[in-house]
Every structure is written in structure tokens, then in C-alpha cells.
Specification:
- This protein is α/β, with parallel strands linked by helices and about 190 residues long.
- Helices cover about 60% and strands about 15% of the residues.
- The chain has seven helices and five strands, in the order βαβαβαβαβααα.
- The protein has helices at about 10-20, 35-45, 60-70, 85-90, 105-150, 155-170, 175-185, and strands at about 1-10, 25-30, 50-55, 75-80, 95-100.
- It has a five-stranded parallel β-sheet, with helices on both faces.
- α3 links the parallel β3 and β4 (about 75-80).
- The radius of gyration is 25 Å and the shape is elongated.
- It starts with a strand and ends with a helix.
Length: about 190
């Protein structure tokens, strides 16, 4: 279940936002009236979308929105209509969606859905990035094992490669596991 964090000093606005979000049964709503409490919460919890109703007691909320965006939290910043353009210019580069107050329901829902979609896209990219990092690490281990074989068994690169592949096929494990065993055997890992 995705968590939505509402940060609002105004209790009335907090209640209104909670009512708007009740339609989304698959979200858990967390509320706070303080930017510092919101920052503490996101350091220990994963949040899909943060909705910040400005101004907050201790700050405007602009910096908080940028902090959340840096953490890949979909962020909606609600500001007075007379400063929408100015605030938008300051935060939209980071992916913060700026909404003017008073809230227009269809605009709010559109912004919320866009931020949820953005969060899902970022999560998928993060997973893909992690897969690629793991693959690169595996390639490095296999290449290091080939070098060890070349140095210690006087094999050329092709022979070292074939040796690792043959061992992997014979033992029915990945080349990566064979390479790790080789590095362990020669006290490299």
C-alpha cells in the first residue's frame, strides 16, 4: 500500500485533503503539520507522494518540496494563486507539481495521478538500474577471475574464458559463482 504524506499547518486543509484522498483505497494517509516532522518521517519510511500545503509554520514549504523530490517522492506543492508562477519556476525543474489554491478537484486528482505514475516509473527505473549494476559487478568478477587464471595457469584470455564456462556447465552453476570460487581459491576475495 502506497503512503501519502500530507504536510499542512492548517487543520482544515489537512482534513479537506484527507477527504479528497479517501477515494484512493490503496493509499495510506499520514499527516503532519511540521516540515521537521515530515523530514524525520521520510527518513524512516517510504512515501509515494507528499502533498505540501503552504505556508508551513517554520518555513514556506518550497525547500521541503525540493528535499522530497531529491528523495524520489512525488511532490505536490499547494500555493496561493498570486505566487504560482514564481514558485513553479523555482521547483518544477525537480519534478514538483505546483497547484494553486483554492484547490480545483479535477486538477488535484490529475496532479495526484501524475505524481503516482511518476513514482512508479522511478521505481521501475531504480529496479532496472540495480539489475544493471549487478550485471556489471558479475562481469567484473568474471574478468578478474580470468586474469587470475591467465597469471596462475598460464592461459590466454580465450582459454580462461572457456575454462570458466566449462566449469559452470559441469557444475550447473553460473559463470559468476565459478569466478567467485576462483577468486576465493587464490585469496583475492
Amino acid at each position: 500500500m502506497d503512503k501519502v504524506l500530507i504536510v499542512s499547518y492548517s487543520e482544515k486543509a489537512k482534513d479537506t485533503l484527507c477527504q479528497l484522498l479517501k477515494e484512493y483505497h490503496n493509499v495510506q494517509i499520514i499527516t503532519t503539520s511540521s516540515a521537521s516532522k515530515a523530514r524525520r518521517y521520510v527518513t524512516n519510511n517510504e512515501v509515494a507522494v507528499a502533498i505540501i500545503n503552504t505556508p508551513l509554520k517554520e518555513e514556506t514549504g518550497t525547500q521541503l518540496s525540493l528535499d522530497f523530490a531529491r528523495l524520489n517522492i512525488g511532490t505536490i506543492l499547494m500555493v496561493k494563486s498570486e505566487i504560482v508562477e514564481q514558485i513553479s519556476a523555482d521547483v518544477e525543474f525537480a519534478g514538483v507539481f505546483v497547484l494553486q489554491k483554492p484547490i480545483i478537484k479535477p486538477m488535484f486528482y490529475q496532479a495526484f495521478k501524475m505524481q503516482m505514475a511518476l513514482k512508479n516509473r522511478l521505481l521501475n527505473l531504480k529496479k532496472e538500474n540495480e539489475k544493471l549494476r549487478n550485471k556489471i559487478e558479475e562481469i567484473k568478477i568474471v574478468d578478474r577471475a580470468k586474469l587470475i587464471l591467465m597469471e596462475n595457469k598460464n592461459l590466454n584470455e580465450e582459454q580462461a574464458h572457456k575454462y570458466i564456462e566449462k566449469q559452470a556447465m559441469n557444475q550447473r552453476v553460473s559463470r559468476y559463482l565459478i569466478a567467485k570460487d576462483i577468486l576465493i581459491k587464490y585469496n583475492i576475495m
